[in-house]
Structure formats: structure tokens, C-alpha cells
Amino acid sequence: MRVRVGVNGFGTIGKRVADAVAKQPDMELVGVAKTRPSYEARRAMEKGYPLYITGGGNPAEFQDAGLPVAGTIQDLLHSVDIVVDASPDKVGRENRKLYEAAGIHAIFQGGEKADIAEASFNALGNYDACLGKRTLRVVSCNTTGIARAAAVLRQGWGVDHWEVTLIRRAADPAETKKGPINGVMPTFQLPSHHGPDVLTIFPDLHIATLAAVVPTTLMHVHVNHVRLTRAPKDAKEVTDTFRRNPRFRVFAPWEHVDGTPQVMEYARDRGLGFNDMMENVLWDEGFRLDNRDAYFFQAIHQESIVVPENVDAIRASMEMESDGRASIAKTDRAIGLSRA
Ligand code: NAD
What we know:
Blueprint: E1 3-8, H1 12-22, E2 27-34, H2 39-47, E3 51-53, H3 59-65, E4 71-72, H4 73-77, E5 82-85, H5 92-102, E6 105-108, E7 119-121, H6 123-130, E8 135-138, H7 141-156, E9 159-169, E10 185-186, H8 194-198, E11 207-214, E12 220-228, H9 235-244, E13 248-251, H10 260-270, E14 280-290, E15 293-300, H11 307-317, H12 324-335
Parallel strand pairs: 1-2, 1-5, 2-3, 3-4, 5-6, 6-8, 7-8, 9-11, 13-14
Antiparallel strand pairs: 9-12, 10-11, 12-15, 14-15
Helix pairs in contact: 1-11, 6-11, 6-12, 11-12
The protein binds nicotinamide-adenine-dinucleotide.
């Protein structure tokens, strides 16, 4: 039997998660919840996703827009086994009361504090520890990127210490009210919140993070220095290991991917849903090894990296698959991310 899933909040993350869930053979997307009519609500209707009203939205507005509504958020919650909350930062905490009242499992996003859920989640990082938890929080885009890389490096060579400088995108492409549009804004929180957030996945990791926001909407870029516990044979051993793992894309020099504009052009050429780039992006040329010290760049597409993680979080929470790697393979095959 397929697990019944609802998505509450249909913005940048919610609409992507809904599409990914709809493609999974072991899940049924029962409906999506919107606060008001919009081009995104119209698309939900065109895709055949039943629309529910959430967040105090006004049914008359949907009626005036000609968008048929299947019911309220409470109606949706009573028809599903699990809900993915993709509401704006901090709104999930209020929504949690609705999920508790409906007695269903819930997946929250990285804009919520860690204590909103029983555990924070990353598919490569701690799938096993999340099995059967009624509430999970998929960590933020940057934390997901670091956690994936940490899972690979820890398993391969061990990590003694890690320093990351995060060059953060200012806004998502559709967000026109955020900035800066001309400036580099250091985050005067030292360390930035990302390091402590990674500890919700790997509590024993020695990691320090610094961040600055720059005027771009395409991707975040992480500048990494990792001291490994054991020295790899050479840089290729590490980049080949990343290549073999799911959810990494390592670009070779001959591909001429010079930075985030070419990464996103590649994503457009590839043409997955929303032209997304759900993998951590690394470069052979952007990786250097000096004995146990690894230096590398990775780019993170903030709008999509957490999408497959939400699908795996559903499987872990509902105990639909006990093996994290098997869940990752299923998810990726269904959304077309699989290289196999
Ligand atoms: P968004 O603003 O694009 O979408 C949020 C949606 O929720 C909007 O459609 C909004 O109308 C709706 N909403 C408002 N109030 C609501 C309520 N009470 N109940 C349900 N829905 C409500 O935001 P987003 O970028 O999709 O972010 C959602 C979550 O995902 C946040 O926790 C965020 O931190 C996290 N996240 C965002 C990104 C990113 O780069 N956009 C990356 C990773 C994680």
C-alpha cells in the first residue's frame, strides 16, 4: 500500500517536494495546501494536485480566481499518513499543533529550530537513526550539503577538523525583496549557525563555519579545508569516491564548468524538473590534497538540494525502507537523478 502524503506550504520547497513525491511508486500525493491563489496554485491545479486552503487563507479568493478547492488543511491532514511542512521559516512550529491534533507524522524544514522534531535528518548522514521517528527535520540547504560531504569523508578517511567558509546566495531567483544587490555582507555570528546545525547530524564532528552573503541567486558555494584522519593515496581517490556516491556531481576540467552559471546552465540542459541541480557540485580542478589536508569547493543549489532528502525522510519516518542507501536509490531513480 502506498503511503499517503500531504504538502503544507507550496512555495519554493513545497512545490518541488510535491512533484518528487508524486513520482515515487510507493507514495501517493493526496494534496497540497496554499494560503492564497497564485501562479503556483494554478500550476498545482493543472498538475491535478488537489488544493487545500491553509494558513487562514480565504476560500472566496480561490473561488474568484476559478481555482477549485478540495477543503481545508484539516481535511487534508485527516486524509494522509504524513505531512511535509514547507511553510516559511518559524511557521512550522505553529503548524505542528495541527499535525499533533491529526495524529500524523510530520517532516519539517531547516528554517525551523532543531527541537521542532525528534531528530534532524540527512539521508547519507543519519538515515538509520531517524527510522520510525514521528517527526523529522530536514536540515537546511547548506547543512545538507556539508552533511552529505561529511558522510563520504568520514566513511572514507575520517575527519579530524573541518573549516568551511560559506559564500551564500542573497535570495532565491523569485525573491525580489531581498538583498544585497551590490555588496558583500559578512554574517557577524561567529561561528555561523551552519556548523552547530551540522552537529545535529554528526554530534562529534569538529567543524567551524563562517559565512558571507553575496549578490547572486544561483547557488551557495562552500570553501572547505578538511584535515582528514588518514591520508588518501591521492586527490583522485577522494574525487572518485565522491563520484561513486549518490547525490554528488564532480565536473571534469574538459567540461569547462567555470562556476555556478555553467552549473545551472548544465542543469537547464539536463532538464530535470524545475531545471534543478539536486547534487552537491564539486570540481576535479577545485580539489587539492596535501597529505591529510583536503581543500575543495562545493556548490549547492539552495532551491532543490533538500528535495530528495524530504522524500527519504518520509521513508525513514514511516519505516517504508530500513536501508538508507536503498531509499536514496529509489528516490533518485523516480525523479531521474540516478546515473545508473
Ligand atoms: P517560500 O516562501 O518559497 O514558500 C513558503 C510557502 O508557505 C508560501 O507559498 C507561503 O504562502 C506558504 N505559507 C505561508 N504561511 C503558511 C502557513 N501558515 N501554513 C502553510 N503554508 C504557509 O519558502 P521556501 O523557500 O519554500 O522555504 C520553506 C522552508 O524550507 C523554510 O523552512 C526554509 O528555511 C526551508 N528551506 C528553504 C530553502 C531555499 O533556499 N528556499 C532551502 C532549504 C530549506
